[in-house]
Write a structure and sequence with these properties.
By secondary structure, this protein is an alpha/beta fold. It is built from 7 helices and 14 strands. The longest helix is centred in the C-terminal third of the chain and has 12 residues. It is globular, with a radius of gyration of 16 Å. The site of one zinc ion has 4 residues, from loops.
């Protein structure tokens, strides 16, 4: 498994391209915007996009999903069904943040906790982690000890819970039940900012004390 991170939009959201080294099959995770820039990088890497995966329905994570799904003729997968209201209210989300309007978006398939998704010969477990938003999922590569975390846990903080559908105790429960039982050496890429490890957050993150 290889990956390349491209921060997109004014929110510097970490869109990632993830691919299987053996087959060249790839997924785009959380394409929040800047479709042309992502297409350019994908062409340079000579990888073959098979699917688009979404961790949750906030505009900075989904803004370019429709455009890229059409361009590559691939399905949009995830997040969890509980995100439906947020994703149908995308135009309103954009209004609140004064961003260009994004049309309502529904994926080709919702995800369930415990599912396993494949990219070529590598695979990711789906963990439903509500709290930042109701249908938020994270993608965990057990073999590589790597998590695409979205906005659940960050380097030094946790996801915000003041947006519609957010709930602090639900978020902390998700982190404690789904994330922290995993190994300390697990590296994670959050939706914004720098990577960290679960061990590091366990020791230093003030929200997990
Ligand atoms: Zn978010
Ligand atoms: Zn975000």
């Amino acid at each position: 498994m290889e990956y390349f991170v491209i921060p997109v939009t004014a929110f510097n959201q970490n869109c990632s391209l993830v691919w299987c080294k053996e087959t060249g099959n790839a997924v785009i995770v959380d394409p929040g915007g800047e479709a042309k820039r992502l297409q350019k990088k994908i062409a340079m890497l000579e990888i073959v996009v098979k699917e688009i995966w979404l961790t949750h329905g906030h505009l900075d994570h989904v803004g370019a999903a429709s455009e890229l799904a059409k361009f590559y003729k691939v399905p949009i997968i995830g997040p969890h069904h509980n995100e439906k209201i947020l994703m149908t209210s995308l135009p309103w989300q954009c209004q609140i943040f004064g961003m260009k309007i994004i049309q309502p978006l529904l994926p080709d398939r919702w995800l369930q906790n415990g599912e396993i998704l494949k990219i070529g010969k590598t695979s990711f477990h789906v963990l439903h982690c509500p709290g930042h938003s109701p249908g938020h999922v994270v993608f965990w590569n057990k073999e590589k000890k790597f998590i695409l975390m979205g906005d659940v846990l960050f380097n030094g903080r946790i996801g915000c819970t003041n947006l519609p559908g957010g709930n602090i105790s639900t978020l902390l429960e998700s982190i404690h039940r789904q994330i922290l039982p995993l190994e300390d050496s697990t590296v994670f890429l959050p939706g914004h900012g720098l990577e960290s490890t679960l061990g590091n957050e366990r020791k230093t993150n003030p929200f997990l004390k």
